[in-house]
């Protein structure tokens, strides 16, 4: 059944476009986009990226999908397009609900942290809001983000920096692992194209197995590992004191710290 919730997307980069495609596929019928520099990919969608007028009413939902460093300028530019009673969903990393409420008085603010698998409708989005958010607004926010994957509501806003560090930035960690595995394969004799094929398909297949299995990651790892075998030899390196777990912890802490720094911009 078509959903006529008025949506205004401000900023349509890769994540904005991912959400937009999800809404179009989920039959949201009242979508407007404001993007000063529309890409060819955005222009190919059945949406005018810069309409001459914007639908503004009390049921309006505005999604901020711009760079966090630029959000104040963007809000100054578009204040007139945001209804005084609108709900505003922000995907700006590190920008707090309080900062957004100061910039957008009286609006209901929801913070969201989606991740890039949203582009293939496999995203995970964390949502949080002030305690006084209405059930109606909460339901709209949930339905909008479910169009690109799963949704988890987080009660404590301080967790959003941690969410950013784990799931928001997490896809890049996995892609870098594929890069590293590809480079290692080349080093031990694979041709570059074959090395990438083996690395990519190994990760893709393993992710599908993880998705379909009732066992946790640790058990799946053990299922692949024979005592004294080749996998064990590799894991002895990866699981050493200064191995992958230690490196991942430092990486996640660095991402969390940067998210916290962005809140002070």
Main sheet makeup: 7 strands, mixed
Relative strand content: 5-15%
Distance between the termini: 42 Å
User: How many beta-strand segments?
Assistant: 7
Going by CATH, the architecture of the largest domain would be 3-Layer(aba) Sandwich
CATH superfamily caption of the largest domain: NAD(P)-binding Rossmann-like Domain
List unreliable stretches of 5+ residues.
Answer: none
Helix content: 40-55%
Radius of gyration: 21 Å
Strand-and-helix sequence, N→C? EHEHEHEHEEHEHHHHHH
**Class derived from helix and strand content:** alpha/beta
Number of domains: 2
Keywords: Amino-acid biosynthesis, ATP-binding, Cytoplasm, Helicase, Hydrolase, NADP, Nucleotide-binding, Oxidoreductase, Proline biosynthesis
Domain Pyrroline-5-carboxylate reductase catalytic N-terminal: 7-94
InterPro entries: 6-PGluconate_DH-like_C_sf, NAD(P)-bd_dom_sf, P5C_Rdtase_cat_N, P5CR_dimer, Pyrroline-COOH_reductase
Main location: cytoplasm
